[in-house]
Structure formats: C-alpha cells, structure tokens
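Help!! Second protein's tokens look totally different from the first
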Amino acid sequence: MKSDLFASENMAQQATAPGMTLQNAKSIKYVVNGEMHARQGSMVAYRGNLQFERKGQGIGGMLKRAVTGEGLALMAVRGQGEAWFAHEAANCFIVDIEHGDALTVNGRNVLCFDASLSYEIKTVKGVGAAGGGLFNSVFTGYGKLALICEGQPIVIPVTSSQPVYVDTDAIVGWSANLNTSLHRSQSFGSMVRGGSGEAVQLALQGEGFVVVRPSELVHQRPS
C-alpha cells in the first residue's frame, strides 16, 4: 500500500531511551519505565504493558488530583511501554525543569510530566475572586513537563522596569518568582459606555518571562 500517509515523519519509531520526546508538533511520545503523570483522557495510543489510573486528592505517594479553573484531572501511567499523548490537536512543547527552577502553569495547558517533578496547586497572589478565582500549578524539581497551546505561543520577557499585563484567558504560564496582581486598564467612563472588553488583566512584575496563547477564547464543553 502506498500513500503520503506513510511518510517517515508520520511513522512511530521504536524507542531508544525512556522519557518524553516530541512525536510531532501536535503530540508527545513517552517511553514509560515505571511511572509518569498525564492529563486524564489525553492518551491517544499505547503499546506495551501499561496501566492508567485516575487518582483523587491523596496523601503520601498517591497522585494528587489537580483541580484548576477548568477542573483538570490527572492520571498516573505505570508499567513498561510507550504511550502517545495529545489534546485537541494543540501544539506541544517540552520544558526541561532543573533544580532551582519554578514554573507556574495554567492547568488547561498541562499535558504530561515526569513523576520526578513536584507540583502544588496555588491561588494566584493578588487576584482572588475578582480575577475569577484564578489558581495554577507550580512545578519544581527536576524533569520534563509537556505543555499544550492553542496556536503558537508568545513568550514575553518581564523586567523590573517593564511589567507585563496579560489577559487571564490567554495566559499559559510564567516564572514563579514574578509578583502578580490585578490591573484595571479600563476607565469608569468607558465601562459606563459599554466597555472595551479589556477591563482587567493579570499584572506580572519582577525578572522572568510570561507565556501567552494567541487567543482569549475559553471553550466551554459539556461535562
């Protein structure tokens, strides 16, 4: 059988080392030898001897259930084999986190990560209920984290002299050392006239970076 479908860039190759790699721009390949964690429902294929288990909020060695603004749940993947992960054909990116690094990520942008990474669900400081109860996952430790983004992400440097203001629906993640607060850019007069649609942003100050997606749309799906 002949087709462009069977081009070499589309073919899954045999694994040569454990851990995650980009299968292509839209998917992650993970060679599991023990345990890893992934967004629930993101596995699109696997081969080998693997078990997928959803875990609630646990203690000790049990996997936390990471609840974000969109109710994202994680699963543990255990055993030996290969698994492929993707989510709605979003673009995939691998971040290498080293000791001393701390990355804050919106839960909707987490695809999968090494079990060696630690994460904690935290409310974004300075935002509170007025910001829609925004709270993200803070990743630390040593390992790889796969992120997804609708479209090509924009990485913006943040400096002490140049803070950055981001729409909360567009933010993907930022350096965890940055200070956050709500910023109101719309005047009272503009609000009375119907508003600009850009009333409140997340202000980030300090030294680091922020990642945003090229979309403010929030897709609501039936549960």
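Here's the second one for comparison:
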Amino acid sequence: MEQQTWKIGELAKLTGLTVRALHHYDQIGLLSPSQLSAKDHRLYTAKDIVRLQQIISLKQLGFSLEEIKELLENKSLNHLQIINMQLASVKKQMALQEELFLKLETIQELLQAQKDVCVNQFMKIIEVTNMIEKYFTKEQLEKMKQQTQQFSDEEKQQIDSEWLQLITNIRAELAKNTPTNNQKVLQLASQWQALTNQFVAGDQAIIESAERFYAENPNSPLQHDVDKELYLYIQEAMSHI
C-alpha cells in the first residue's frame, strides 16, 4: 500500500464526495481517518481509501449505511466479492442502455406535450433518465409504459390534477400535525395507494422500487413536490391501513 495520506478536503475533492458526507461517515463510525499528522491533522491512508471504495460500491448497490457498517465490521463480504457484486450491477446497467429507445420515447412525449422547453427542463429530463435507470428494471419500465398508454391525454391530465390535489391535502394535514392514524389521513393514504396502482397494476416489485426512489431522492423533479418529510408521513399512514 502507498504511504501517501490525504486531508479530508483533499479526499473530498479527489473523489467527488462532500466534506459533509465524509464527516458523517466518521461520526457514525463507518469510516474514520487512520492517522494524525505532526500538527494533529486527521489524515486518510490508502487503507482508508480501500474501505471508502467498498462503502461507495455497497451504497451504489442499495445497502443502507447501517447495513454497510455491519457488513464491513463482520467481514461478511471481502473486497473481491464487493467488486464482483458491483460488476454485476454495472453489467445490468449496460444492458439497460440497449433499451435507451424506451427512454428517448418518454422524452419525446414530454417535448411534444410542451411547445417551449427551457434549458432547465432539459436538465431535469437528463436527471430523470439517470434516476429511472438506477431504480427500475427494463421490464418494470415497459410495464409502466403499457399502463400509461391505456389512458387518454384527458385522463392523464385528470390523474395529474388528482395527484397535485392529494399532495396539497396531505401537506395540510402534515402542517397541522394530524396523527397518521387519523381517519382523514388514512383516507388520503388510501387515495395515494389507488393512484399509484393505476400506473403499476398492483405490481409489488415496482411499488418497492418506487418507494426506494422516493425515499432516496426527495428533491427529484419526478417527486411532484413530495419532500422527504411528506413522504415519510404518508408512508407511516399507509402502514396503518
């Protein structure tokens, strides 16, 4: 192993991670700098970089930070196994690229629905495309597309309107700190489930993928103004149904 060391700011710049994220990993005992400089600066070593790569790989594979910490501490997976798992994931993503036509069709529909598309909207389309590939399989995307094609333009507009109104109503109850087992909130949760099922045909695997997407991307343009707090609120309400 090389003897070179890195300060936290240097490591953040080289890896594209934030100093805040590295501080968080340190605070929860997931990854801490191994050495101290003569001036008591905490320094990351090559060994720390190897562990960081394992953390990032496992995180990309969908493991939570708590699960990653347990896996690494118990040595449940060695470095080669983690690399192999990520390779399999990357191969799957490469296969999805072959289905790019499906994504381009979706973008085409967005553009045809709007006469003027600003640069920011193009950026959102790129972001959405990347996120979709991460959370949904080719088969799931095709199934959702088939479900959506069953609706007329008027029906799609009506569903969009229902979603926006539903989110407004949920946010109002959240602002009032209404308990999630309140009858009115339970009714809103039932409406959430019903609207979701219109697009996934009751497919539990798609629902789970969508839930992971919502949980991990609170500021996504696909969220329809559903922030993390609102999402957790309605999820808790659905647990009472």
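Reply: Different proteins will give different token patterns, so don't panic. Residues 153-175 form the longest helix (23 residues).
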